[in-house]
Fold each of these.
Amino acid sequence: MSAMSGQGGWPDGKAARVRIMGTPRSGTNLAKHLVETYLGAPAVFDRSFWKHGVFPALMDGRVLQYGGLPIIVMSKDPISQLLSWFRFTRNDSIFRPNRYLGSFLSGPFEIRQDFTQPNQMEYRFRTPADYWNQFYFALGALRRAGAPVHFVRYEDLVAKPDQCLNSISRFLDSAMPFDAGTAVPLPQYAIGSSNDIDRPADPAANQGPFDPSRATLSSALARIGWRNARRILRDIDDDVLDTTGRAGFRETCRRALGPAAMARSLIGYW
């Protein structure tokens, strides 16, 4: 199979019907798998601009450019997301490594399309939370400007994939919306990262067992501790929480807080 051989940047001659965007480790690969498998809608990640990059201000006179495709935007809650990023820094890939959670949360955050390769575009944000804010604020602004943008929460996609697919199919204006009562089994194994440029031989190569508990806020709070959670919440913008469908998230965190999260705070920042 030759990559990028079909129209719309899709192999085998199929025109892409939707673009999927999201910050790293926000569920974009899972969303692509489910959308293509159950909705039959070919999806692209990186045509014209990077799926993990803050949406660029493209100009053509006064015409808004968003790539000509409806956009599905995946997001994890900021507590789970920043914990996931911290763990991912150990891979020396698109995030610059950091050994300690406290310094990771409070220091400058650098992201590059691939830290293992030279001459890649780099971005720097004030903190990891600042990247989360900027990314989703930009896509929220794109939606407010009239572009077809649909936000999906990762925790919903894992817990209620049938309902999410129903909502996505309606967003894509499907003649026959996906039946919300249909059983949608999730993959047994995590789906490997992929893009539209360097397609691996097996995009669904096993990356270890798929763990739905990582979509649970209480689990993330127990790992990160309430002290670090408050640091993240201090830097997260309420408007952006609303944009991603998380109005009242601060109170949600307090309700999900358990003794393990409090104990973690007493241990330190690890």
Amino acid sequence: MHEQSELGLLLNEHVFDPIARALGFHVTEGHHAVPDQIVMALLVAMGIIGFAIWLRGRLSVEKPGRMQHIVEVLLEALQGLMKEVIGRDPRPYMPLIFSLAFYIFAGNVIGQVPGFISPTSNLNITVSCAICVFMYYNYQGIRKHGVLGYLKHFAGPVWWLAWLLFPVEIVSHMARPFSLSMRLFGNIFAEELIIGSLNKYIFPFLVSLPVMFLGLFASTIQAFIFVLLTGVYISGAVEESHDESHSDEHKQAIVHGQQQEAAA
């Protein structure tokens, strides 16, 4: 069983449990009104919102601050990566991608702080993130191609194999939220379990700092992988089909020929 965070217990005992009882909910002994992972997720979300409000008040074109430079570099790097992955202008998708990257990274790292746990070490949190990605990229695909046009992607490029490829593609897409959520959950849960055991049973806190740095690296990698796969899924949803891409190339060739004729 995952140990509860000290801060989560404190907030439940002095804030959430009294509010729940005042509203008429029955809170039994040994149980709390708000699960620990939800408390941590709320703290991460509130921290990100507070940071965004603080940074917004300090944005400047003439004299950008150090933190503005850092955020701009991170945003440009992520935007460049997504442009390579998606193969088109990624700016319409950056609000979700950057928010996911920031939230998952913060959720992974907060578990390194004594008294806290990572909300992403709980399967409920990682599943919610994966379902958001699943709904978003399918929505973008339907928005780009329409319902029937998007369903054609599942049938493959060869019509006589559609009966085989369509169910395979459906199962593959339905498995994506499971793989996304399990990968993130498994890695962060194992990381927290190892670091917590080292701190509690084997090494004192300061001696296990090198292991915590490794945990920080692993947290960054897991956030990167989650966001990278999100970009891959978006790319597959909004890409042109074979017929559409051939038609676009044909149109471009016609326009190019007309331009050459006009120049001649």
